[in-house]
Amino acid sequence: MKTTGGWWVWGMLTLCAALVLGAMTWLTRHVIGSERERAVAEARADLQERVRLALWRMDAAGAAIIVEENQRSTGDASTTAGLSVASVKMRFEISESGALSAKQGEEHLPALKALLREQSEGAALFPAVSESLIEGRNTWEAKKEAPKDISISKNQKAPRKAVEEQDYYNDKERAVRSKAIDTQVNLAQPQKIAPAAAREIPGDEATATFGTPAPVDSPRLIDVGIFRPAWIGEQLFLLRKLVWDAPRGGKTIQGVWMNTEQLNFLLLKEIEDLLPSATLVASQQTAPDGMVLASFPWRLEPGERALPAPLPRPIAISLATGWAAAVLAIFAAAGLVRGILRLSERRASFVSAVTHELRTPLTTFRLYSDMLETGAVKEEKRGDYLRVLSREADRLSHLVENVLAFSRIERGSARAAMRQTSVRELLEPFHERFATRLASAGLKLEWDLTHVSPALLLRTDAAAVEHVLFNLIDNAAKYAAGGIPPVVRLDLVDWPRAVGIRVRDHGPGIPLAERRRIFRAFHKSAREAAETKPGVGLGLALSRRLARSLGGDLLCEEPNEGQGACFTLTLPKISG
Predict the structure, then answer these.
(1) Which domain covers residue 397, as residue numbers?
(2) How much is the pTM?
(3) What crossing angle do the helices spanning 4-71 and 260-269 adopt, rounded to 10°?
(4) How far apart are CA 93 and CA 255, in angstroms?
(5) pLDDT at position 148, please?
């Protein structure tokens, strides 16, 4: 029976559950979001610090190579020592007339000529290379200028820039590195030479040393530039400009063709403990970019992203505990509400069924008493009428007794009068009452206690045992009347630790669908009470509770539907 109040209660419970789950969801998302932001910030700071250290390491190594090359005299072509030995392919010089001569690494001269002609696109070679040198001056100078292509190649691609890398762009940090490198390189710059102290450069070999007086008619080197890195095509060069006095006059460019792959490897080797997946890509811009080396025009790609760490175990446990508590609370509340509503419905059904049960005997009492009072009943029929009234009175008395006993058990005020007795002494006083009740339904009671040992002792409440067994006998009288044979048998089963009192009839039995309901209090509705045998569905529920209060139990042992009902009351024996 569903009531409007029941739906209202379930609606309120659902609303409260939705509010609780919504609050838990918001709290969980907020905590996880905050923790994720914190973890991402920590991971980003860690990655940024490793990137910063990596850039400093690579710039230190790159600056050492540039300083070493700047410290060489203009005629030094030695390859026997120095940091740059493994990173240099060849050293060369280009005159203003476009003449290209190798100072070291002559085997690469044809490849260099082809590269320079290709990149100059048929223009004069010296101006093209000179322009690369001019643009290369911004390599370690952190100027706020618009991006420029420092390569004379038109096919170079712009450096990759990912959105997540923007946080690592640090112009001030790069300016500090650029200033440090600029200081080192300037300290290694050859001094400008006055004509009186100029060194002699015989021919184009440039092998004279500083401090040697030069003949008047010999070419003199009056200015030496600084080696600066520059891209020509996809190859990396160090270039510097030399200025000569008469009679040679004019300008030349000295260059160092770097071994790009080897230099890349050496620089990455410096940071493999910090960024094992890092790579270097060519940077074709002079705009400030904190990820570009200040020594060589390469851009560092860290090879990893700042990923948040897993949710800390204490926070995960706290959230899981909170969710478990919230869900358990909701289920507990739902179970409580369901139990209360079901109890309310059963009690409403009980009241309705009891009303019907009371109305029937009261109607019989009124009708029969009126007929007896008015003399409408013949003398020979008076005994039958009085027996009907007595039976209905017993029925009402049994109903009231069950209700009161169940009420005492529900309140916890029932008190069992436990005493020691033998099984025979316990059961013999019940025989007459049980037989009389069955006889009223046309049934016969069969039991045999002659084989029961007098030493079989129990400690129990005789009144409670009688109440349980009478409920079983009363049910047999209601439902097994007309059974074949018309017999209700009471047997005794002796187990090692308990005694079983079995009541078996030959009625229609209990349907499978009803076996779970019969021990439930108030399981009959008014309609069921009216359409089935008399009763309110309380006897078996009361009997099982009484049996368990005595330390035993009441079990339905019906083997198959339609073969009669069989109930067994178990009671613990006194251990001897």
Answers:
(1) 337-572
(2) 0.52
(3) 120
(4) 6
(5) 39
